[in-house]
Known about the structure:
By secondary structure, the protein is an alpha/beta fold.
Amino acid sequence: MGSDKALLPAPDGGPMWARQRDVLAAAGVGEILLSARPEQPWVAQANGLAALVVDGFSVGGPIIGVTAALERATHPHLAVLAIDLPALPAAWFVRLREMCGQGVGAVGRRGEFFEPLAAIYPRELKWLAWEALAKGEYSLQKLVAAGIAAGLLREREIGSTELPWFDNRNEPGPEAAGAAAGLKAES
């Protein structure tokens, strides 16, 4: 993208990372973790977070951060929120939480595709994530499908009124430079 999405301005004017932190807090998440790479200089000044979860590998995409957060999780479920979803409200996570149970999380689906970066995962999904990484498989779509097949995830069809919530920010902006980051949180 050419810019660090975490530093792009959110609709409220603050940085996107702070907006996503606030969304998770409003959804009732008790411990908010930031998954990022250590070379991102702004991370040291990020506040209101319980911990930084460092992505262990420089390749592999978002599954690396999700797996690291699942490993770090102390709660039974992990809410994951991508940094580039500026319209996703806390209500989405409240709805997903209603579908969760012991050892079972929830993820949205639109058409044939899941929304794995606006989901709630059970800690038990880390076993499937480790297995995928050991095979060199970095697709969150495949991980979610495996989680559903294993009974670890329930899927929720994203309604037509909810679709705008998932419009993501993928255009470069002049506001910042660097690499993208993700925000994950424990619930």
